[in-house]
Amino acid sequence: MNEKEKNIQGEERSFTSFIFDTVYMISFAIVLVALGFIFVFRTVIVDGSSMNPTLSNGDRIILTAAYGEPKYGDIVVTCRPSDLMPDTLIKRVIAVGGQKIDIDFDKGIVYVDGVALDEPYIKRPFTDRENFYGETTVPEGYVFIMGDNRNGSTDSRDMRVGFMEEEYIMGKALCRISPWGQFKIG
Fold it and tell me: Would you name the residues annotated as active-site residues?
């Protein structure tokens, strides 16, 4: 075998090696993304207007189940089995276990532990009381959730939802990924 034949054979091996490495890396990346979406992330489509203007009907969001304890302001998806409510709810955490919550429906202000919440995501004053009748303490292991569209949201003010057990929180919203052009983190 002469020198020219050796060079051609080496180039063929390099090209074959490059193709093999590329296919391997792409396959590895696909497996990692798939495992991430199986065990850590999930996509959910918003159904309804209870989170307007933050989230709209048909928006697609990414959730993570690996987020720790729920806290005020988190947008969460819950899945408590119930004959009275849909399978899932997308709402904002307003208070957590041990906190006192009260709502002034004349002014549309929510108080947690006696402090008025700053809620810039609320666009209209709300007066819909649902079944909320005064100051109450959120039990440990539960959260009090409300939609951002308070006049069009069935949430913890309604006895069909009430306090939501933390165990039924599927995950916290990380970002909105569609509609295209409206990507938003948090």
Answer: 50, 91
Q: How far is CA 184 from the centre of its chain?
A: 12
CA distance 71 to 94: 8
- What is the spatial distance between Cα 145 and Cα 161, in angstroms, rounded to a whole number? 9
90 Cβ partners below 8 Å, 6+ apart? 44, 46, 50, 51, 55, 61, 75, 76, 77, 147, 173
Q: What are the tens digits of pLDDT across the range 133-175?
A: 889 999 999 999 999 999 888 899 988 888 999 999 989 998 8
State how far the Cα of 155 lies from the Cα of 85, in Å rounded to an integer: 10
User: Which amino acid does the sequence have at 129?
Assistant: R
Q: Are the CB atoms for 154 and 48 separated by under 8 Å?
A: no
Pick from 90, 58, 48, 117: nearest CA to 174: 90
Helix (H, G, I), strand (E, B) or coil at 86: coil
